[in-house]
Amino acid sequence: MQSKVADLIVILGTGGTIAGKAAQANDNVGYKAGEIGVEALIAGVPGLSTFRLEAQQVAQLDSKDMDFQTWRRLALAVEAQLTRDEVRGVLITHGTDTIEETAYFLHRVLAPRKPVVLTAAMRPATALQLDGPQNMLDAAHLVNDAAAAGVMVCVAGQVYAADQVQKAHSYRVDAFRGRDGTVLAQVEEGQVRWLSQALPGPLAIGTAALPTEGAAWPRIEIVLNHANADGRLVRLLVHEGVEGLVVAGTGNGTLSAALEQALLDAQAAGVQVLRSTRCDGGPVAENGRGLPSAGALSPVKARVELLLRLLGTPPQS
Ligand code: SIN
After folding, report:
1. Which of 125, 128, 150, 291 has CA 20 to 30 A from 306's CA?
2. 250 CB contacts (<8 Å, ≥6 apart)?
3. Residue 155 near residue 119, CB atoms below 8 Å
4. What's the fold here for domain 218-310?
5. Arch. (CATH architecture) of 8-194
6. 70 is catalytic
7. What is the rounded CA–CA span in Å between residue 36 and residue 42?
8. Running along the chain, 317 residues long, what does each successive block of 10 average in pLDDT?
């Protein structure tokens, strides 16, 4: 049997500002995200007509409201598309606010060899200065690139690895950065210029490990070290039945004595704890004091990691 050429890009829409609408073209903040369907977004990008495309609307939400059920549906949709021989890769339109979490989730659940590129926009589709169409076009060129593999985020011409990307600015169009300054590639006039290589992906934990539709997911919260952190919030959360806690410590994941004791007590009571840092970059080194490090993961990515561990998957080495 002749195998099909893998030249098809599947675009999955999930909402976000990229699909947002404002009443006035000069309104960059008072808009509603997730209003325009993915087919209409594609039609608004003339350069996309050179690609063979299919589109599917998986969700239509503001990504501040992203939830576990949508993550599951998205992972299943991506997985289904990637198994098709003719599919070269998947492009996902998403909101900027939680794109870094979704990217890390897909990276750990699917660890795909084919490219899965998430893109977004800081301006709604009705704005004077549009970034969404160029971002979609850049993302399509990235999916099509021979060296592209794994889960990446492509925004403002920059390509970031799923485990490193983070939103670093609340307003600017180039709002993203790689943790510790890492950028995988740049997309310029349809050309992908690789600057570094993504590390080999983890083993996929697989979608079968995820709770079934409607079933409960583990409850995990993030707490912060700060002046006068007394640990009472941790004790309250344990009382409420929290199953996992990520602490965003100061510096090398350091914690006030009271917060550290509350977390050690939580751990002794069966709550899984990961220690990350509220700093914008750098890892957390193990300190031998009993609360395990989240490595170089940001607090929100450490929360995804802990979520997957609680679902029974081994930690990423
Ligand atoms: C969202 O994250 O859905 C809204 C904000 C954005 O996309 O920039």
Report:
1. 150
2. 225, 226, 277, 278, 279
3. yes
4. Rossmann fold (3.40.50)
5. 3-Layer(aba) Sandwich (3.40)
6. no
7. 10
8. 79 97 88 94 96 98 98 98 98 98 97 97 94 98 97 98 97 96 96 88 90 95 98 98 98 98 98 98 96 98 97 70
